[in-house]
Amino acid sequence: MIDLSAAELLAAYRSGALSPVEVMQAVLAHAAAREGELHALCAVDAEGALAAARASEARWQAGTALPLDGVPVTLKENIAVPGAAYRLGTAATAEGATADFEAPPAARLREAGAIAWARTTMPDYGMLSSGLSSLYAEPARNPWNTAMTPGGSSAGAAAAAAAGYGPLHLGTDIGGSIRLPAGWCGLVGLKPSHGRVPIKPGYAGRVAGPLTRTVADAALMLAALAKPDARDPTQLPPGQVLLRPLELQKLRIGLMLDAGWGDAVQPEVAAAVTAAARTFEQAGAVVEPLAGFTTREMADGIDRFWRMRSWLDISALPADRRAQVLPYILD
User: For residue 34, what are the domain limits?
Assistant: First the structure.
């Protein structure tokens, strides 16, 4: 049952074929068996999860189930939950630091009945495309090959998703922190438009979004996440998120094999992307080559922004705390 999607779990709960309690028990057992090699989680609340599963089971039996009732979900460590550790993946944050508020994405998932049973690892301040961290003894590993990284900075979320720690996982993204690990772990990862998913604390460019194993599950999760929250002044007007069939006939799809800067695309990657484009073409879509439109100068500009924004946080630390930031980031 750990391989079932959120949509399949909801259908099984609805029919009575499965219970949220037995699903939560299975997920907890599976995660415990794999964590020794994957290092995807920084905190697990098994007791709270099972209590939430029993409450969910009662709602299903009473006919009052919520949209994501009883579906397990993990939260990236930088998603605040009252009383939960809030160290942002870095040893520079004081031991015992906890959040005193509930971030909008966590609140929306809770209100939809999802069971947030674990928190996932990340690099210092989410500033790397891996899980390397000054806080955790071992970085998250890719379940497909544990010698490899799952990508980052939503490293633990991606590892957990690919390993079957339940169907729904919440990451955050500025410059690829959901999309990179999704690509490296064979997942569906979505960086929503800025403001579509309200967030707190605010940070220019950062959004929260789903990491799942199916498109349908990403849509289910986004439908819950996109509800309004007055604490985010950048939120977009409310909009309904619906999974709908995509008509491929004459749909125009751009095929970009060169971003315009950076390393050349590896031949096997280019072949895989081109094969996917041909599949769309055979289904009736119109595939057109698209030249890269970004430049090295643009990339350097966003890099300077990230460095500046990160330094505002790091420079505010006492000297002894600042020295504990991962050297790759501090330098």
Answer: 6-225
